[in-house]
Amino acid sequence: MKLDDVLTGVVYVDTNVWYMYLRTDPDSLGRIRLFLERVIRGEIEAFVSVLVLDELFYRLLLARVKDATGKNPLDVLRENLTGALRAHAGLIEDALRKLMTLPHVNLVGIETGDFDRMLENIEAFALLPRDALHVAVTQRLGIDAIASDDRDFDQVNGLVRHWVINVPVE
After folding, report:
1. Which of 42, 79, 84, 100 is the most buried (most CB within 10 A)?
2. What is the H or E stretch that residue 31 is in?
3. Domains of the chain, with CATH numbers?
């Protein structure tokens, strides 16, 4: 189901949805804004794990470094991590903190028990570890919907993916 077709319910929001919103992807911004408006009004309860914020911070850092330097951001970080963080971390932190203050956006942690579930999910659904850990969090919380453009989640039984651009492959 398209993300903007989600009218109510509980949804785990993956990194790429927040990334497209913060990087203002013109192709997807309207769809994501409509979803977030429903979250803010309380029609949708959104859950975000610390893992999502970790991934989002890193991806935003890479994008900002590339925008600022025109160079491979990994090379820049290897050469001058302190300088890159000094230049960009504050703005990224502000953006993430603002997202987490939105009404009906719930920040959840990773728990020890999620590790065993992650390993099970890797094998059961042929997922990479981070995706398997996201699924473990949704399973622990009893959430059966994920807002994500990652098609790998389509193979997870019992999890419905609400997409922005990447239509599920049937």
Report:
1. 84
2. helix 29-41
3. 3-156 (3.40.50.1010)
